[in-house]
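Record type: ASSEMBLY
Status: queued
Input:
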Amino acid sequence: MIAIALLLAAPVLAGLVAMLVRSNAKRPWVLPALGVVHVAAALAAIAGRADGHAHDPLVASLWIRLDAIGSVVLLTLSVLFLIISWYAPGYLAARSERPNRLLIVCSCLFLALASLATLSQHLGLMWAAIEGATLACAPMIYFNHNPRSIEATWKYLMVGGVGLALALLGTFFLAYAAIASGKPVELTYEALAAHGALSEPWVRVAFVLLLVGYGTKMGLAPLHTWKPDAYGEAIGFVGALLAGGMTSVAVLALARVVGLVDLLGQGEFARQALTVMGLLSMAWAAAFMIRQTDIKRMLAYSSVEHMGIIAVGLALGPVALPAVLLHLVGNAWAKSALFLSAGNIHRAFASKHIPAVSGAILRLPVSASLFLIGFLAATGTPPFSLFLSELGLFKAAAATASWWTAGIFLACLVVIFIGFSATVVAAVLGDTDAPEPEPLLGDSWRTTAAPFAGLGLVLVLGLWLPAPLKALFDEAQEDARHGRVLEAQP
Amino acid sequence: MVDLLLALVMLLNFALLGSGRIRVLIRTAALQGMVISALPLALGHELGLRGIVLALVALAVKGILVPAVLLRAFDKLAIKREVEPFIGFVASLLLCALGTGFAVLIGRHLPLAPEHAGSLAVAASLATVMAGFLLLITRLKAITQATGYLVLENGIGIFGLTLVGGVPFLVETTLLLDLVAGVFVMVIVMNHIHRAFTTLDTRQLTALKE
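Status: finished
Output:
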């Protein structure tokens, strides 16, 4: 109870502190402090899940509760934030020309709202939290205040705003499906799931709207158009927060909706739609990753790819859920390493385009190596955890005899590996005539330790899955298998 | 009474797509928001004090506060008064008519609960969502796009208010808060667009592409 309250209160408090701190140089240290507190609170909340939710006044309404799948996403988000938060002071020290108050306050606000989304057991609350988190990100994207970043922010706001508006309409449609079937309306997952099969047309239209809405936030093709622009123009750590945090929360929303729609009798329809969008995203990403010369846009398309993989995994049903969750965790943490190291390279070369960026390993040996290894992790090379999760998904597709899905899945992965590697190799290896970066822009532990930690975690997960995490994956799978939206109340 | 108001909302969609002045456009969207916020009062249910207060707050937000924010931005940024559509007004109106017809068609095919039989709500809601979407994609200025977003939210509001009814108080207040916050953020970004590009013409926003 205290831990859950802390998950929401700590970021809000940190935001207030950041607002009051006058010094542009000291303010970024709010983030590492918040990161530590938040991870501690998340671990405590997850560990305390087992004992007695029933006496919890927060939980009594059944709007806020930490279930297994929510725990996984919360942990992903919290650790991602911790990684990013330890990078922020070093990065912002090199960017002292820009005031960072808005950036830091919005980061704290984002963490609060994204955490709320992982705890929500109510469709309306979940929607509001994601909408709020979306808005909190907007000022972070235009931190650079140049025309390009402002253009990206506007597109992000418009596309995301419309997408989420449609998700809200879908939420209402789902509520009306209950009314049209003569049942009382209540927007908690538990109450909706208890209805069983509901009016088919309403549930179907609702699912399409929710898929479009949360699919836009995830960045599934063809709704991903905001993504390359926003990720390309935002500074590295905002890109990492969007690609690892925002998308993971959107995946959670979609996973909950898919589970719910299954219980309401339209699972088959939902799975078909998800498979099509997932494979389309992978293919689309593959097409745009070939000959991509912008390293940050490349990462955006990689994110489209991974969201596609996750969508395909969700379509495969409970059997694939542990692999989906492992993929979600691995993607978020690997993305942090990629975006943060790409940010270092971008800064040192004052460009993110090949061929202006070339031979980065000569100028920034650590960041460039991290970028290169991050690429290997993100493309599912063993021994990183994304290899295991992609293998798990492929096996699940084969086990359910989805041969077409498995084939296209594999083909896209191969094309993406080739396209991605061409760009990364060109950026990292080769010769450079760029001058030695100024001391402040060169490699230092302050801006390389965080991406190193992110990669390390993905590597560890690939070699050894901690038992508590595995237990969470299994519990989430059990919940999905038995259509248990809620664990039994004592 | 309710159907009369819903018909009015649908007519306002045409007014929105036909208006050539930004000021008129924002005022029309405000009027539409007020009509929609008044729907719960016209439904004749027992609202209770909380319901009435909420309806009045929604009325103030959608009809006064949000349009005022947009109008202020409009005055401050001293942009040209014309709406500047990407496609002509006649084409916009035709598309709106098509969208409305389509919405009525869908409304007929979705099974309604007995107490809503014959209600215009589904048609009005979808027609307004489509009108908002049309405004968003066919108007060039950032401020008209923001107004389109407002109209889209109006359309969703119709559905929530007339049909679902049971949307809890807390969620409904949060929705209003989100709308206000959303428009505020949009206006702030608009200021930045204006400063960076000295115009709100989104045709300038084309640097980012493959």
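Annotation: Chain B has seven helices and no strands.
Annotation: Residues 2-204 of chain B form one domain.
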